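Reopening closed ticket. The problem is back. First fold of the pair:
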Amino acid sequence: MVLVFEILRRYVASAIALASTVLLFLVPGELFLQLGLAESPAQLSRGQIDLLTSDGDRLADQGDFLGALKKYTRAYQGVVANIRGQHFVREVLPNILNREQLGQEMLAMISSEYTADELRLMDGSLKALGLVPSQLNVPDLITKMLTEEVAGFYDPDSKRMVLIVEEEAPNPGLFSRLFGAGSTFNKDEQKTTLAHELTHALQDQLYDLNSMEAKIEHDDDMVMAFQALVEGDATLLMFVEASDNDAQDFDPAALRASFSVMSWLAPFAGGESLRKAPPIFRDGLMFPYLQGMLFNVHLAAQGGWEQVHLAYQSPPCSTEQILHPNKYSDTEAIDAPIQVNVPDLATAINDSNWQYLGKNCLGEFQTAILLKRVRLGSKAAAGWGGDTYVVFQDPESKALGLVWVSIWDTDRDAIEFRDAFIEYRNWNHGGSPLPDELTSGTSPNGVDQVFDSTSSKRVVQLHNNQVWIVEGFDFNVTNRILAALPNTTFEEKKIDTLR
């Protein structure tokens, strides 16, 4: 399911996390400029940076926005390197496309990078968990959000920084609405945006972002945690550059309060598609920037940028660690997530009517989104220890089957999650209210909560600090799954040293 957030994060907002859309108003006919990588750049002195910036300001005042952007890009490689205390291996020059060209390129990249099976699992997972309505066309919604919100991106595959040009002022997107971006070329906004985007280029040159993500791509929660490290790092540097504060000077409590307001305002910002999208899209898009920055502020408070740098050698491996940074870095509080290894359920089901779509880990953050409308839902999610969900689909009817095994920090935490999930399903069934005839009370032994219909059965079972959820299958298949689940094994989830 993290595929949704990866697409949005990578192609929608990586250049503009808390800044603005890059707006370049072109001389007629000047629609396309693409520049490549240059040789290893020389380190710039403060005076050289100031001179390049001044030259860029002069060109911008003369209306030569492309020339200004090239000067700013060179200058801000020096700015980013000086703040981070690390230097670029290769110079990065902007690749500039107009909006139509960029949209075509992004859609082509998505088509080539993500398989039909991955897209099916993404769609099936969102719908099986009730995070989106069953009738929603998820790929179509993503395409619309890309069209409305896209501002630019850094592509670690081609090592390109791609920015967008505008022949006329566009409708502002989510981040530009939230943070007050203007509709004309604003010199300060361009510099702030470049600080964020060039941080990604530096990260990639130092750590090889694609290689690192490839080692964890099987686990959504681990990928989201890594994305939060990457985006939060770039967002923190952007704030440092704009405020002239050191990374360790920011007050996490004050930032958290400010970001809570920003998150609340998010549904009222952005393009029409994002405003109308389910919370899983909006919250997922904000998470790596806002929570990721708070995580990086926590690291910086312990050792400045060097502590941030060290985090790439041993990255956070769960969104739980992003949400609660002490569970990552404080020796006495470290809480490594649990890998939940479910048995081969396709063999256990032994039914040709069910096609295996895939499995993954939801994690604390996405579980909290799932339960956000439930009383004490966030508290219930906070006891998360590990999980794996498996999704099946009937090829003919397109009905979905879900098996979800989770483990919690304590037995009490497991009870809280079970109760919260049951409450969630009482009002949500594929994004709509649950029909009365599908709801029944707790079974006499207090262990199972069963919802019966003519064609399927829903079971929620509590086993000490584990919760088993089986939904969407008939009685016989459900019982075969429940008979197999005691063979689930658990181990500490680890990310091998990546560098």
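Second fold of the pair, where the issue appears:
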Amino acid sequence: MERTNPSSPSLLLADSCLAFNPVPGQRQRADGWTPETQACFIRALEAMGSVGQAAKVVGMGRRSAYRLRERPGSDSFAAAWDSALSMGRMRQFDYAMDRALNGVTTVRILRGGAIDVTGGPDMDVVRAAIREDAAPLKATKDTF
């Protein structure tokens, strides 16, 4: 019977359009870009839509992530990166549109203990959503 590591990238991203072949390591480092760290980075990128934030979640740096992407043998990882980034940006756009259309509720406690509840669209989010480019971006150093 073959034993599998439950945290291997193939299992972390199983049944996902983000499945990829991990970038081969040049050296084995406990604090480096292990296959598990790469898979967690792709998941975080899908959730957040930001390379810097996703790298921070896995304890790595943004520049380090771009260097990993440029290594030989990273084609599969780069494709998963592009897909995850696009999905993350769409998720953030959907969230922004929800706040723009359905509004937000603000509760303030005034002097004397009075409570003021206001609601309405978050116009900052509306403006940001309108500025957002509709064309999908490729992940390059120039786009971030």
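Update: turned out to be a display glitch only; the data is intact. The beta strands are 104-109, 115-120. The chain has six helices and two strands. Please close again.
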